[in-house]
Automatic annotation (TrEMBL):
<feature type="domain" description="Transglutaminase-like">
    <location>
        <begin position="413"/>
        <end position="484"/>
    </location>
</feature>
<feature type="transmembrane region" description="Helical">
    <location>
        <begin position="71"/>
        <end position="88"/>
    </location>
</feature>
<dbReference type="Pfam" id="PF13559">
    <property type="entry name" value="DUF4129"/>
</dbReference>
<dbReference type="InterPro" id="IPR025403">
    <property type="entry name" value="TgpA-like_C"/>
</dbReference>
<dbReference type="InterPro" id="IPR038765">
    <property type="entry name" value="Papain-like_cys_pep_sf"/>
</dbReference>
<keyword id="KW-1133">Transmembrane helix</keyword>
<dbReference type="Pfam" id="PF01841">
    <property type="entry name" value="Transglut_core"/>
</dbReference>
<dbReference type="InterPro" id="IPR002931">
    <property type="entry name" value="Transglutaminase-like"/>
</dbReference>
<keyword id="KW-0472">Membrane</keyword>
<dbReference type="InterPro" id="IPR052901">
    <property type="entry name" value="Bact_TGase-like"/>
</dbReference>
<feature type="transmembrane region" description="Helical">
    <location>
        <begin position="172"/>
        <end position="190"/>
    </location>
</feature>
<dbReference type="Pfam" id="PF11992">
    <property type="entry name" value="TgpA_N"/>
</dbReference>
<feature type="transmembrane region" description="Helical">
    <location>
        <begin position="46"/>
        <end position="64"/>
    </location>
</feature>
<feature type="transmembrane region" description="Helical">
    <location>
        <begin position="564"/>
        <end position="586"/>
    </location>
</feature>
<feature type="transmembrane region" description="Helical">
    <location>
        <begin position="24"/>
        <end position="40"/>
    </location>
</feature>
<feature type="transmembrane region" description="Helical">
    <location>
        <begin position="141"/>
        <end position="160"/>
    </location>
</feature>
<keyword id="KW-0812">Transmembrane</keyword>
């Protein structure tokens, strides 16, 4: 403190008052690190490098090892960063470019801070960066992390005005704790209005299935234990063998790659304006809810013939589901499963596309198909012969199939006979077309891990699967899965019943929670934590206008427009009063001490007798003058004056309750007394 006083004498109080304390710098260092780490995957390497340099430089300033960098250097870094962002911004996407720009601005500002004004600017930018962390991840873990960083940033702000670190920390915790009930009230009551603008698409890396599939693509997904989606059924959960989650229909084949048809690609581009296809006839056999994880893609997941009434979902003509926007965050939607045929009347265009084979491709497979077709002329008999071949010949299901040459299906089907689901689905689809039967490949997921605590299925990336759909007269599109003939345990019991996880999604993934499956109590803990995250997604992230209306109905009964508006206004008014009270703008009346209330009672009674208290009179002078005006009770008035002074100023005398009883008795007596004229007190009267 003495040093600070001497410094004030030398440079003036205005400058020293702007000196940033070490505790503020420490909190800012921690906030800087906490903000940049979760945004690293959205940050370019050079932007991340500049941010790291700024962080290290700021740490050096904190420990007194380096000085603040020259302003010219900071300006040059800022200009170089802005120019580079302009050059690569189109490739990154608008939102990613803005995130990088804000990170760079935040980092560069931290190393040129001079006074509290600069610190406040950095802290406010930190709040904004914190909100960007929640753009594509609103899970309960991310939210808990955000609340922690929010508190840390608030602590940095408070440390500008409070000297004691412990007091600032407790006050920051108190502020955050006080804000949570307000946030909860706003979350529950405020209506879910449509957004006034749309956030630009976050150009992040896409995960999961692709709309182009070749040999070896799907088995790459078996290396990932990332969650694809969760599903919860209103009724009984179907058996694992019936859990075929359709995502993509691939109809174009060039001899190496399966792709979506041009018609479907164009339909997806215009899905918003074209809208959904017709709802299947009848009632759904299963109703369920899906929570899809962020993937950067638009395709969704459903069982067989699925249909959704969700406003954000388009039902495509090939019985698939498509989101109107890429999945940058979790998406929740309800849908039904219908026991209805798919496309009983096959359009000519679709028939032609699903019978097309590439020229000069897989000649030996074509010859085999011709031979089997001659032996089994009927469509179903021919398909039965194909499936029997997979079941009876020496085919093997493996995650590491041998390489194939130009004629992929020839090499796989007739030579090495080792493959994964895409190999077998490709061969079956090719041979079905060669036999004159419309066929297409479908990719999605098969199976699911059931969580008994919460009653939902978790579907992971390693459960990715491919199968075939063939079109039969009078039946429409029918699913055929050759995997069920070669490795039936994969379909009946799931991926883990067929493959060693250590050779698939656990290979090199040493921190995977799935490693806990072999330890019962740790696996139980894993499932319970997953249940908490699921309920967070269901009741918080999925709290839409329908759920809000259901909640208000439980609380208020039938919710009409008038009652809803009145409820919102009352809740809003109560919220404003609470905020005003917390900010000190509204002060609630505090009860007066009992001695003061007793004196006020006597003063009011005397006023009614014409003995008003002058503004300059103390209690003793006032009661003495009243005693002269009412000589019959002068002793009682003077005794009350003694008792009041003892109770009010000396903490002695009668108990406050006894003083109240004495005042009530004195009030009754005063009302019966006749007043004796007494001159008014002069301005020089003493104060009691």
């Amino acid at each position: 403190m003495a040093l600070l006083q001497r410094l004030k004498c030398l440079v003036g109080p205005a400058i020293t008052d702007e000196i940033i304390s070490r505790q503020t710098l420490l909190w800012l260092l921690l906030v800087h690190l906490a903000l940049v780490v979760p945004l690293a995957e959205k940050t370019t390497p050079w932007a991340l490098g500049i941010s790291a340099i700024c962080l290290v430089w700021r740490a050096g300033i904190f420990f007194g090892k380096v000085a603040r960098p020259p302003r010219l250097l900071v300006t040059a870094l800022g200009l170089a960063s802005a120019i580079t962002l302009m050059l690569v911004g189109r490739e990154m996407g608008v939102l990613n470019a803005l995130i990088n720009l804000l990170i760079l601005g935040y980092s560069l500002k931290t190393i040129e801070m001079l006074g509290k004004r600069d610190v406040r600017a950095v802290i406010l930018a930190g709040y904004f960066l914190l909100s960007l962390n929640l753009l594509d991840n609103q899970g309960i873990g991310a939210m808990a992390y955000a609340i922690g960083v929010f508190g840390l940033n608030t602590l940095a702000l408070l440390s500008l005005y409070r000297q004691k670190a412990a007091g600032s920390a407790m006050f920051a915790i108190k502020l955050v704790a006080q804000s949570l009930p307000l946030a909860l009230l706003l979350f529950l009551v405020l209506p879910r209005l449509p957004p006034l603008w749309v956030v630009p698409h976050l150009k992040s890396s896409t995960t999961g299935l692709s709309d182009e599939v070749g040999f070896g693509d799907v088995e790459k997904l078996t290396r990932s234990d990332a969650l694809a989606f969760r599903a919860r059924f209103d009724g009984a959960v179907p058996a694992n063998a019936n859990l075929y989650w359709r995502a993509l229909v691939l109809e174009d084949y060039d001899g190496a790659i399966w792709r979506q048809s041009e018609f479907i690609r164009e339909y997806e581009k215009q899905a918003f304006s074209l809208g959904s296809s017709r709802r299947p006839s009848g009632e759904p056999t299963d109703s369920y809810e899906v929570i899809a994880e962020p993937s950067g893609q638009r395709w969704l997941f459903g069982l067989d013939v699925a249909y959704s009434d969700a406003k954000s979902v388009v039902n495509l003509p090939d019985q698939r589901l498509l989101a109107l926007r890429p999945l940058d965050g979790r998406m929740q939607y309800r849908l039904g499963r219908y026991d209805a045929p798919m496309d009983l009347n096959l359009p000519a265009l679709s028939r032609r596309v699903n019978l097309t084979l590439p020229e000069d491709s897989n000649p030996r497979t074509l010859a085999l198909a011709k031979e089997l077709k001659q032996q089994n002329p009927g469509a179903e008999a021919y398909l039965g012969a194909l499936m029997a071949r997979f079941n009876q010949d020496a085919y093997f299901y493996t995650l590491t199939p041998p390489p194939v040459g130009r004629h992929q299906i020839d090499d796989f089907l007739l030579d090495n006979k080792r493959g994964f689901c895409v190999h077998y689905a490709s061969a079956l689809t090719f041979m079905a077309r060669a036999g004159g039967i419309p066929a297409r490949m479908v990719t999605g997921y098969q199976g699911g891990e059931y969580n008994r605590d919460a009653g939902y299925l978790s579907v992971y990336q390693y459960m990715a699967h491919a199968w075939t759909e063939v079109w039969l007269e009078g039946k429409g599109w029918v699913r055929l899965d050759p995997t069920a003939q070669i490795a039936p345990s994969r379909i009946l019991d799931g991926f883990d019943a067929t493959f060693d996880a250590s050779e698939a999604y656990l290979d090199g993934n040493y921190l995977s929670a799935h490693r806990l499956k072999g330890i019962p109590w740790l696996n139980e803990l894993r499932m319970r934590l997953a249940s908490i995250d699921y309920y967070w997604s269901l009741w918080v992230l999925g709290f839409d206008d329908n759920r809000q209306e259901q909640l208000l109905k439980r609380l208020l009964g039938s919710v009409g427009d008038t009652r809803f508006i009145v409820t919102v206004l009352i809740a809003g008014f109560a919220l404003l009063l609470l905020i005003a009270w917390q900010a000190g703008l509204l002060k609630l009346p505090t009860p007066l001490p009992l001695p003061i209330r007793a004196f006020n009672r006597v003063e009011k009674a005397l006023g009614k007798r014409g003995i008003a208290r002058a503004i300059s009179e103390g209690p003793r002078d006032y009661l003495s003058r009243a005693a002269r005006s009412l000589p019959a009770i002068s002793a009682m008035l003077l005794d009350f004056a003694d008792a009041f002074e003892a109770a009010r100023y000396r903490g002695a005398g009668p108990e406050p309750a006894d003083l109240m009883r004495q005042s009530r008795r004195l009030v009754r007596i005063i009302g019966n007394q006749a007043k004796v004229t007494e001159p008014e007190p002069t301005a020089s009267a003493s104060h009691g």
